[in-house]
Structure formats: structure tokens, C-alpha cells
Amino acid sequence: xxxxxxxxxxxxxxxxxxxxxxxxxxxxxxxxxxxxxxxxxxxxxxxxxxxxxxxxxxxxxxxxxxxxxxxxxxxxxxxxxxxxxxxxxxxxxxxxxxxxxxxxxxxxxxxxxxxxxxxxxxxxxxxxxxxxxxxxxxxxxxxxxxxxxxxxxxxxxxxxxxxxxxxxxxxxxxxxxxxxxxxxxxxxxxxxxxxxxxxxxxxxxxxxxxxxxxxxxxxxxxxxxxxxxxxxxxxxxxxxxxxxxxxxxxxxx
Length: 253
Description:
Layout: E1 7-13, H1 20-28, E2 35-41, H2 48-57, E3 65-69, H3 75-84, E4 90-93, E5 99-100, H4 105-115, E6 122-130, E7 135-138, H5 145-151, E8 161-164, H6 165-171, H7 181-191, E9 196-207, H8 219-233, H9 235-252
Parallel strand pairs: 1-2, 1-4, 2-3, 6-9
Antiparallel strand pairs: 4-8, 5-9, 6-7, 6-8
């Protein structure tokens, strides 16, 4: 198979000694080889750095791996650092603890993109959400699904999204959205009318309880930042949905 598409896979991590090897193994075992792997570490002190270096040393991808370990100001600051180093056609963030669904994901995605006449700036697939006691597949088919999800304060899992590198670099992550910059990014892309295409396959597996925005103490902040994104990008929808959101959130406690 001719591997025309080049991917940039970015992994951001901090104090991730327990999870980083699983993520790296998932990337490095892909059957599709035309990708670069960028790892941004936040100056970990728990053995993460040593495990990353050892895994790179033992792999066959030494010349295609970029590893940086330095202090950052948060998750999205680290992800922005990764974006600056990307040289591929599409960027996907697979942070520590996340992993590809199987070894053929990049191959399948390249086949799907290559078979379509219309090229999208963003491709999104399905994801397996891993909870403490069960797993759940989240699927995102359907017309206008992105807008519907965004209006509900949701989005396809960013671990399942392949974003055109130039688009990713143009928008980046607004770091003033400390826990929902990925939602804000997709909101701005939707406002900018960037074409988006659905990938009918499971791309990745993600820990549903490990993310910052999923932690109970951050729920109120997440709602506040989501409302700000909606108001800045789609003010009419924001004012229409305010009463509904108020009732829903009161019911949730």
C-alpha cells in the first residue's frame, strides 16, 4: 500500500509512568508507517522520562520520534507545543493512557480518506470510553452531528479526531479555556465552516474518568467555559439554550 498521508501523532504526558508505555506501544505497533511521533512531557519526576527514552531506544522509529521534556503551564500549553513540531498532513492527540483500538487504525483511516472525493479538514471516528466498571462505545454518525453535540456541550472525543495540520496550527488551543480548549477549538472550526467527515470505525480507547474536565470538582468550571465558547461563537444559540441549560444543570445538582 502506498502511504501518501503522513500523520503527526502527539502524546502529552506528566507523571505518567503507569500509562505511557501502553500508549507508546499502541502508536509504535501501527501497521501504517508514514507518521511521526511527538511526545511532550511536562518534566516528570516519577520515571516517565526514563520509560519514554527506553521505549524509543528499543523501537525501530528512532528517527521519527520527537521527545521533549520541559516545564509547561498546563495541558493545552503542552498540546500547543506539540502542534508547533508537527510536519504531517493530519494531527491526532493520543495522550498518555489513551491507545489506538487496534494496530490497523492509521491504515484504515488512510484508506477511507483516500477513497473520498471531498477532502475534509477534520475527520472524526468512534471511541471506546473506559469507565471503572465497564466500557462504552460512543459513535458519532449522522447529519450535523457536530453542531448537535456542540450545542449540548459535547463533542467527539479528541482522541478520535484527525485534524488538518494547517487548520490545527491556525487555531491552536486557546489556553484561557483551562479545561475545555478542545471544545472551544472545535467550536471555532465549526464557526469557520471547515468541512468535517465521519470515519465509520473505532479509532481509540480513552479513560473516561481520568480527564481533567471529567472530574467532579471541575464540572462547574467546565459549564462556565462551555457557555463562554458558545456565546462567543454562536450567540443566538447561546441565548436560546440558556433556559434549557439552567433547568438541566439544576436537575443534575
